């Protein structure tokens, strides 16, 4: 685990000393947009026109942020249009690495299908040899301009939703204009309390920071449980990106966050509506294939040695989501 500093890899764990034991996630750096005609998107420059085979996704099956992109890619039937490379779930001293560089590769991990690199940080350096910052998944790579278009999952899923309409017969809109304000408002709260909330609880290094995060997390889960009463999805009958963004945290919750991150006031399977919601989203065509529990469990329990020094991966829980 580490980061790049002016193009050099430095092996270091998250610094929480300067933030009172609180884990603070840094802002992502590559912010260009793929659009249908190559016009600039809401941030960054233009020149990234949607084309089949031009863009490549680097993901980890373990990562909830990367998982968003895999789900939208599957639901939009973009698998043939945007190929994927999958890093090994174990994140050690060199950060994310590909299957050919992993000590004990986990089934489902792949090599780097574009550049043939062995470590994900080398992909970042190929885009910017002087890059400083965290080396995270997901990454959307442009084969033509040989650079990273974007490494922010919230933006990548919007590109997959609307830039590639010419390459898919799926016309479902996961970010429909009339609901955008409501989706954005809910996303912000779910991000803070739930998606990032589990990390704030798990990576906290003071009791106070942990309790603050865990209480806010469960207050929000209780609210979401109430919101889902009598409705299929967060925005009522329309499946939107807000559901996908919540799902990737909920599917990891009982197997990982309850134990590993100490988010243990309740489990998701004890919430009738959240449980139904997870099962319904999991059952959508293509989604089950994006959920790789061995990668998810192995990543967290084995990579975070400060939290789980033995690296033992729990056997349970029993599967309730399918
Ligand atoms: N804001 C980013 C966050 C991505 C992220 O933090 N990914 C994690 C994996 S779950 C990662 O690659 N972490 C490596 C690191 O922080 O060094 C996004 O949503 O795309």
UniProtKB/TrEMBL annotation:
Active site: 63 (nucleophile), 199 (proton donor/acceptor)
One Pfam family, short name: GST_N_2
Matches recorded under PROSITE patterns: GST_CTER
Lineage: Bacteria, Pseudomonadati, Pseudomonadota, Alphaproteobacteria, Hyphomicrobiales
GO molecular function terms attached to this record: glutathione transferase activity
Recorded GO CC terms: cytoplasm
CDD domains: GST_C_Omega_like (cd03190)
Organism: Ancylobacter mangrovi
Protein residues bound to glutathione: 96, 134-137, 152-153
Top-level taxonomic group: Bacteria
Protein name: Glutathione S-transferase family protein
Residue ranges occupied by any GST C-terminal domain in the UniProt entry: 176-303
Residues the record marks as site: Lowers pKa of active site Cys: 257, 300
Alphabetical list of PANTHER family matching this protein: GLUTATHIONE S-TRANSFERASE OMEGA-LIKE 1-RELATED, GLUTATHIONYL-HYDROQUINONE REDUCTASE
InterPro entries per UniProt: Glutathione-S-Trfase_C-like, Glutathione-S-Trfase_C_sf, Glutathione_S-Trfase, Glutathione_S-Trfase_N, GST_Omega-like_C, GST_Omega/GSH, Thioredoxin-like_sf
């Amino acid at each position: 685990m580490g980061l790049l500093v002016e193009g050099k890899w430095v092996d270091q764990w998250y610094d929480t000393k300067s933030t009172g034991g609180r884990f603070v996630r840094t802002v992502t750096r590559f912010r260009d947009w793929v659009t249908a005609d190559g016009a600039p998107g809401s941030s960054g420059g233009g020149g990234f026109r949607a084309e089949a085979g031009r863009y490549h996704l680097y993901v980890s099956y373990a990562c909830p942020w990367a998982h968003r992109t895999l789900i939208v890619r599957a639901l939009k039937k973009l698998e043939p249009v945007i190929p994927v490379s999958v890093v090994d779930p174990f994140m050690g001293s060199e950060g994310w690495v590909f299957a050919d560089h992993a000590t004990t590769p986990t089934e489902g991990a792949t090599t780097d299908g574009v550049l043939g690199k062995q470590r994900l940080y080398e992909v970042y350096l190929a885009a910017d040899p002087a890059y400083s910052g965290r080396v995270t998944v997901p990454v959307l790579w442009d084969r033509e301009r040989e650079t990273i278009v974007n490494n922010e999952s919230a933006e990548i899923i919007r590109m997959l939703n609307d830039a590639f309409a010419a390459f898919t017969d799926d016309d479902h809109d996961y970010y429909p204009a009339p609901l955008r304000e409501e989706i954005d408002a809910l996303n912000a709260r779910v991000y803070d309390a739930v998606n990032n909330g589990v990390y704030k609880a798990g990576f906290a290094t003071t009791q106070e920071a942990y309790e603050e995060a865990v209480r806010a997390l469960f207050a929000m889960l209780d609210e979401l449980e109430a919101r889902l009463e009598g409705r299929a999805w967060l925005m009522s009958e329309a499946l939107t990106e807000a559901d996908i963004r919540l799902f990737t945290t909920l599917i990891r919750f009982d197997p990982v966050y309850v134990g590993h991150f100490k988010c243990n006031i309740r489990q998701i399977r004890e919430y009738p509506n959240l449980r139904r919601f997870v099962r319904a989203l999991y059952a959508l065509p293509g989604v089950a294939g994006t959920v790789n529990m061995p990668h998810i469990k192995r990543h967290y329990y084995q990579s975070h040695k400060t939290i789980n020094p033995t690296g033992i991966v729990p056997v349970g829980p029993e599967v309730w989501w399918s």
